[in-house]
Specification:
Length: 554
């Protein structure tokens, strides 16, 4: 084992090379830079695991930086949810920082570029600018304002800041190269006018820096050594480096990796917000959402999400990960950590005709066969029980190893029953099944010699407690709801993504379960108690089925 050299991903290779070359004295400092314009999703979890993981691995630091340069979309609610989700995932940031805290510094950086003749104020409208921008194969044309003097630019920029001009009437641009093959280098925007209240700086500012003139500069201010972002910023890297060079600031290094895409869902905060605003889901933490808070409410553990992120690794090319892999990760964890309990989701009444009326037996059942400690609980058994309707079949084929007339079936932790008879209503629907039990067949001390094939879960009727059970399916009917820009992703919403069972029957040990508690309901899947569950109105969410049954259903 110790012989085997751990293989490094391409980002770790870059970092180890930098360390070996003594760059930044071997220091590693990463950051996670969310824009507070929505709740974090599983794609962000990948970035969090990566950035915080690298900080930890190389004894470095990781900042949490809110990239709050757009006052229109940002809210304090999002800031708080982001902090909560990162903590829940099991990470701690070294510093909590805000790009908006650098507004003055960024303004000074801009002034410096103006003074160097590397930035200018442009009065063109966005249409005029677009017309002059050229195409990837056709060079752009210089704006008529490109050759303004430094003095004039300084004056106009100061007046932009002072609030003299209307939104959109002027912008500050970097003066780079209107014929660059990289369109982003054709005098990119740096500052725009926006008379808008900001969640932290209030009305102090009416000009706001563009992403490209905020992100990299914030990295430098914080002396971030490795600034990891997603692939769509690859062609921003020359600009990132140009600003560093011209401003003569700390040389942070931008590294791009492929963003996480997952099947049957989507990873855009803006589009997820649309689902929330249009009430297609119940909120950001709807258990069908790919958000961290949705997954948490669904019953996902932080460990399972971290394991998933590690498992998919970092890639240099875009790909689409099967959501089955995420489900595998949570099953793997819950299989170890949850108690097995019994719940009947679609109850059918069974009467054990030779069992004494009014008698209750306390059966002792082990909670988790995977656990080191052998913890048990008491489950009451009586003459009348519920089984799952789908576990009974009147005329069953030979291979049906559940309950059917004339055959024997074992009840988990209890006895073997022989099924004798059914009672039907006037519509021919089975309302009751009559069985006899073998008193000598009690689990663990069976001397009956009777054979039974299947083992069923059950709940004693007089002891059963009611609960609402919510079953979830994929939110979208297609693997990639955003595959075609001409098709509205809402056309792919799965109308059956939620089904609610109002009166499921649970074993009485679950009476005191609390929001967030997780269980395996035997043969039915892993479940988590919903945040709105109360002792007199229990609600549980199915996290995932025990096996991947979805492929078959298709
Ligand atoms: P969205 O389009 O969902 O709003 P974003 O990239 O605009 O995503 P940010 O808040 O800017 O969201 O992202 C914070 C960090 O998380 C960035 O470094 C970004 O690269 C990373 N990130 C966002 N989405 C993903 C994803 N799907 N996979 C991996 N990393 C991601
Ligand atoms: Mg963004």
């Amino acid at each position: 084992m110790s012989e085997k050299k751990e293989s490094l991903n391409f980002i770790e290779q870059i970092i180890e090379e930098d360390i070996a070359n003594g760059k930044h004295a071997g220091r590693v400092h990463t950051r996670f830079p969310p824009e507070p314009n929505g709740y974090l999703h599983i794609g962000h979890a990948k970035s969090i695991v990566l950035n915080f993981g690298l900080g930890k691995k190389y004894n470095g630091m990781t900042n949490l930086r809110f990239d709050d340069t757009n006052p229109t979309t940002e809210e304090t609610e999002y800031v708080n949810s982001i902090k909560e989700d990162i903590k829940w995932l099991g990470f701690e940031w070294d510093e909590e920082l805000y790009t908006s805290d650098y507004f003055e510094q960024l303004y000074q950086f801009a002034v410096k570029l103006i003074k160097k003749g590397k930035a200018y104020v442009d009065d063109s409208s966005s249409e005029e600018m677009a017309a002059l921008k050229g195409t990837p194969t056709k060079p752009g044309v210089a704006s008529p304002y490109r050759d303004r003097t430094v003095e004039e630019n300084l004056d106009l920029f100061a007046r932009m800041k002072a609030g003299e001009f209307e939104d959109g009437s002027r912008i500050l641009r970097a003066k780079i190269d209107m014929s660059s093959s990289n369109m982003l280098m054709r005098d990119p925007l740096m500052y725009r006018i926006k008379h808008q209240h900001h969640h932290r700086t209030g009305d102090d500012w009416c000009i706001y820096p563009i992403y490209d003139f905020a992100h990299g500069q914030s990295d430098s201010i914080e002396e971030i050594t490795h600034s990891i972002c997603t692939l769509e910023f690859e062609n921003h890297r020359p600009l990132y480096n140009w600003f560093i060079k011209e401003l003569e600031i700390f040389p942070s290094r931008q590294i791009e990796f492929a963003r996480l895409n997952l099947t049957y869902t989507m990873m855009s905060k803006r589009k997820l917000l649309q689902l929330v605003q249009e009430n297609i889901v119940e909120g950001w933490d709807d258990p069908r959402m790919p958000t961290i808070s949705g997954l948490r409410r669904r019953g996902y553990t932080a460990l399972s999400i971290r394991n998933f992120a590690e498992r998919i690794g970092v890639a240099k090319r875009e790909n689409l990960i099967d959501v089955g892999l995420l489900e595998f990760s949570v099953r793997e964890d819950l299989n170890q950590s949850t108690d097995r309990v019994m719940a009947v989701l679609d109850p059918l009444k069974v009467v054990i005709t030779n069992y004494p009326e009014g008698k209750t037996e306390d059966l002792i059942i082990e909670n988790n066969p995977n656990s080191e400690e052998k913890v048990t609980r008491i489950v009451p058994f009586s003459r009348e029980i519920y089984i799952e309707r789908e576990d009974f079949m009147e005329d069953a084929p030979k291979k049906f190893f559940r309950m059917s007339q004339g055959r024997n079936t074992r009840l988990k932790g209890a006895y073997i029953l022989h099924c004798d008879d059914v009672v039907k209503d006037d519509k021919g629907e089975i309302v009751e099944v009559h069985c006899t039990y073998y008193p000598e067949s009690k689990s663990g001390q069976d001397t009956s010699g009777v054979k039974a094939k299947g083992v069923l879960h059950w709940v004693s009727i007089p002891h059963a407690i009611d609960a609402e059970v919510r079953l979830y399916d994929r939110l979208f009917t297609v693997e990639n709801p955003l595959h075609d820009q001409d098709i509205d992703f809402r056309d792919y919403i799965n109308p059956d993504s939620l089904s609610v069972i109002k009166n499921a029957k649970l074993e009485p040990s679950l009476q005191n379960m609390l929001p967030g508690n997780r269980y395996q309901f035997m043969r039915k899947g892993y479940f988590c108690v919903d945040k709105n569950s109360k002792s007199d109105q229990l609600i549980v969410n199915r996290t995932v089925t025990l096996r991947d049954s979805w492929g078959k259903k298709k």
